[in-house]
Write a structure and sequence with these properties.
With 148 residues, this protein is of the alpha+beta class. The chain is 30% helix and 27% strand. A 7-stranded mixed beta sheet has the order 1-2-3-4-5-6-7. The termini are far apart.
Length: 148
């Protein structure tokens, strides 16, 4: 019985260490806030739009990002979100994300990230590709990067 408990303890510690290494960048929870100038009547639409894309932007939560949404524009079935990335974050400096202004376009069945590699890196949790828009279907499939 003691041997079984000891084996279970060793397995538990091994799993915990593995999970700890997978979350090495996460130092704080994801924080999403509208800026002071953000239209309050659009807060609900902001929340719905961000909730739709979160499963496809693992970097936001992995990195514990702080995103300040500065604007939201609606046109037909397209919602364009603009956000600033705070300088006070634990994001790898080589990604060049801090202080950036980023744009996300949320459509009916897809969303796209602007052509800044830094903004892509923040969403994807890995370095992005400068000059290419990243587009993802909201069903989980990634489409080819689109040159601009």
């Amino acid at each position: 019985m003691i041997r079984v408990l000891l084996v279970l303890l060793i397995i538990g510690i091994t799993v915990w260490l593995g999970l700890h290494q997978c979350t090495q960048f996460a130092r704080a929870p994801l924080v999403i806030t509208p800026s002071a100038s953000f239209p309050k009547e659009k807060n609900a639409l902001l929340g719905q739009s961000v909730a739709r894309i979160l499963p496809y932007c693992p970097g936001f939560q992995k990195l514990g990002a702080v995103l300040e949404f500065t604007d939201l524009a609606e046109e037909d079935d397209i919602i364009t979100l603009h956000f600033a990335v705070s300088d006070n974050q634990s994001i790898p400096a080589e990604w060049g994300v801090k202080g950036q202004q980023c744009t996300l376009r949320v459509e009916k069945h897809a969303f796209s990230l602007d052509t800044r590699a830094a903004c892509q890196a923040l969403c994807l949790g890995a370095p992005g590709v400068e000059g290419q828009e990243v587009r993802k279907e909201l069903g989980g499939k990634t489409q080819e990067a689109l040159p601009r």
